[in-house]
Design a protein that fits this description.
The complex is a heterodimer of chains A (203) and B (256). With 203 residues, chain A is mainly α. Chain A has a domain at 1-108: RNA polymerase sigma factor, region 2, helix turn helix motif (Rna Polymerase Sigma Factor, Chain: A). Chain A is 73% helix and 0% strand. Chain A has helices spanning 2-12, 17-25, 29-50, 55-71, 82-104, 114-117, 126-145, 148-159, 164-171, 175-192, 198-201. In chain A, 37% of the residues are buried. Residues 109-124 and 198-203 of chain A have low confidence and may be disordered. Chain B is elongated and about 115 Å long. The longest helix of chain B is centred in the first third of the chain and has 25 residues, at 40-64. Among the domains of chain B are: 11-64, no CATH class; 162-246, no CATH class. Helices cover 39% and strands 13% of the residues of chain B. The model of chain B is unreliable at 98-106, 120-130, 136-141, 147-157, 175-194 and 208-213 (pLDDT under 50). The chains are: A mainly alpha (203), B alpha+beta (256).
């Protein structure tokens, strides 16, 4: 019965993350499952953009992120949002993975499988859908050319809709640095995606 | 990574303008805010990027939480409620006031359950009939696995069959200490010899492993072996042991 009520509360968003974390602290697996169900998709989207074409690695990183939450729930500070903490762990794991790849000289294959990031389809008009697919592919290729720290801030800001303050908490850098990175990320990406905007090329 | 100049950027203002104004609609004051950072072409590129990214990411999010309108979901809700009511009425789902049939993951809840089960075990028998060979799902306290359908790993316990149970009993008999004993006149009901072995065994399976409050041993079952009555005792340490039963005269209880 509890499982059903938790599921229903989760669906209707009645229980906030902090309450669920209090349950996780008491080793309540149902509360943990609610948190997992609530955040896994956004976390996976973020990680897929960070490590395109590496779906197994992304799965591992997501599992590891949630495993750390289960293992050390006492590290959660209720003054902050749960999602901020979740992405702090994920970003740190992603960063160390990125470094390992750099050491091994393994470079991401630039070709993003758009369907990996955008599984399924809405009732969007086909031409708009095609445009978005094309943009998604191009954006991913451009993101791969960005520095990891720039890619991080861009995705946290525009994909995950974090505030500047939250990003600074996730990445543990000053807010000024976040703004600066956002500026350079947007400027570089805009330049790289120039080919998608023929109207501006003639300006 | 190339070195970035350490400049103070009013990014919130710039971002807002990028999302809301094209270059031509910027007033002179807004252009003054933008010009140290973007020229006209860069502004247009950045604006396009943010608009398209917003569309893309919002579509991704809507795919993740694609919800049908309320009216389209209503029939499913009604069907689910009806199915739930049916399951409850048939006894497949239980309410929280029947704790002995619920699965618990918290140790404190389990202790409470065990106490209440133990207190009522003499009065009530379980309604569910456990059949040999049918797996019983058991909740564990280990870290939940991450997955779509089953975060709580379940361990399957199979109720042993009658023949297996007999073998276990005989093995226990062989390892029996002969010196220890329990007086029979301490509120332990004498087993009726007419009661069939299978019925006693199935009863034992139903009443399996209720733990006791600390310090009190509990008689879980009694067995006739070689015309002697043996008692299956659960010790305060939680171990099972077989001891011979004694009658009121201090002699081992026998059939004759």
């Amino acid at each position: 019965m509890k499982v059903i009520s938790m599921w229903w509360s989760n669906k209707t968003g009645q229980v906030d993350d902090a309450e669920l974390m209090a349950g996780v602290l008491k080793r309540d697996a149902d509360d943990f499952r609610c948190l997992y169900d609530r955040h896994k998709q956004s976390l996976m989207s973020f990680l897929l953009r960070m490590h395109p074409g590496e779906s197994e690695l992304v799965q591992d990183l997501a599992q590891e992120t949630f495993a750390r939450i289960w293992e050390k729930p006492q590290l959660f500070n209720p003054e902050y949002k749960f999602k901020t903490w979740l992405f702090t762990i994920a970003a740190n794991l992603s960063k160390s993975e990125w470094r390992k790849m750099q050491v091994r000289g393994k470079v991401h294959s630039p070709g993003l499988k758009a369907e990996e990031v955008k599984k399924g389809s809405l009732d969007t008009a086909p031409d708009v859908q095609t445009d978005l697919n094309l943009f998604s592919q191009s954006l991913q290729e451009a993101l791969l050319k960005l520095d990891e720290s720039h890619r991080n801030v861009f995705l946290l800001r525009y994909q995950q809709e974090f505030s500047i303050k939250e990003i600074s908490e996730v990445l543990e850098v000053p807010e000024g640095t976040v703004k600066s990175r956002l500026f350079y990320a947007v400027k570089k990406l805009g330049g790289m995606l120039n080919h998608l905007q023929p109207i501006y090329q003639s300006m | 990574m190339e070195q970035e100049p350490n400049i103070q950027i009013p990014w919130e203002s710039i971002e807002h303008l990028l999302k809301t104004h094209d270059w031509n609609s910027l007033n002179p004051e807004q252009r003054e805010t933008i010009l140290p950072f973007f020229n006209e072409i860069e502004y247009a590129q950045a604006r396009q990027l943010l608009i398209q990214s917003e569309a893309l990411f919002s579509e991704e999010r809507s795919i993740q939480v694609a919800k049908k309108p309320f009216l389209r979901r209503l029939p499913y809700g009604i069907a689910a409620a009806a199915a739930l009511a049916l399951l409850i009425s048939l006894g497949y789902l239980t309410l929280p006031n029947q704790p002995q049939q619920l699965a618990y993951s918290k140790s404190e809840d389990r202790t409470q359950l065990e106490r209440s089960t133990n207190m009522s075990s003499n009065e009530n028998s379980h309604s569910e009939q456990i059949k040999p060979g049918i797996p019983i799902p058991v909740q564990e306290e280990s870290a939940p696995q991450l997955g779509e359908s089953n975060l709580k790993p379940k361990r399957e316990v199979v109720v042993v069959s009658n023949s297996e149970l007999e073998e276990i009993q005989e093995a226990e008999m062989d390892a029996l200490p002969s010196s220890a004993g329990v007086a029979y006149d301490q509120g332990i009901p004498e087993p009726t010899q007419t009661e069939s072995i299978s019925s006693r065994k199935s009863r034992r399976a139903e009443e399996s492993s209720p733990a006791l409050p600390k310090g009190i041993p509990m008689v879980r079952d009694s067995i006739w072996k070689n015309d002697t009555l043996w008692l299956l005792i659960k010790t305060p340490a939680g171990k099972d042991s077989l001891l011979p039963a004694f009658n009121s005269k201090g002699k081992v209880w026998t059939r004759r």
